[in-house]
Specification:
The protein is an alpha+beta fold. The chain is built from four helices and three strands. The chain has one domain: GAF domain (Beta-Lactamase, 2-Layer Sandwich). A three-stranded antiparallel sheet has the order 1-2-3, sandwiched between helices.
Length: 125
């Protein structure tokens, strides 16, 4: 039952990776996206915004050697654009998160390589 609810939630909240969402724009363009007023952006899907109360959005990619490994999304309920300094600060934070994640992934890969996987994958027949 819990797994079914989780699956339903993921399917209902999955973000389209196209230019109609902030996350999609960040993922496709691999650059920071700042929308000062989401109600003024005619290309932003309004059905995605129903039930979500925000007017200003900021998305920053997490890039590791040009590969997108994630993104940060920030939102404000009021229509109040982020300052250039605030955007730069979030971009620095994203860079630091990638550096830390890269080290974490390398350490995890090294640990996993040294022992059997707890959930062995089935072999192809």
């Amino acid at each position: 039952m819990v797994l079914r609810k989780r699956k339903d939630f993921i399917e209902q909240t999955a973000v389209q990776l196209d230019h109609s969402t902030i996350a999609g724009r960040v993922a496709l363009d691999r650059e920071t996206v700042h929308i000062a007023d989401v109600l003024e952006d005619r290309d932003l899907r309004t059905d995605v915004l129903s039930g979500i109360n925000f007017r200003t959005g900021l998305g920053v990619p997490l890039l590791l050697k040009s590969e997108l490994i994630g993104l940060l999304l920030l939102a404000r309920e009021e229509q109040q654009p982020f300052s250039r300094r605030q955007i730069e600060l979030v971009e620095v934070f994203a860079d630091q998160a990638v550096i830390d994640t890269g080290g974490l992934l390398r350490r995890a890969a090294g640990e996993v390589a040294g022992r059997a996987h707890p959930y062995p994958l089935p072999r192809a027949r």
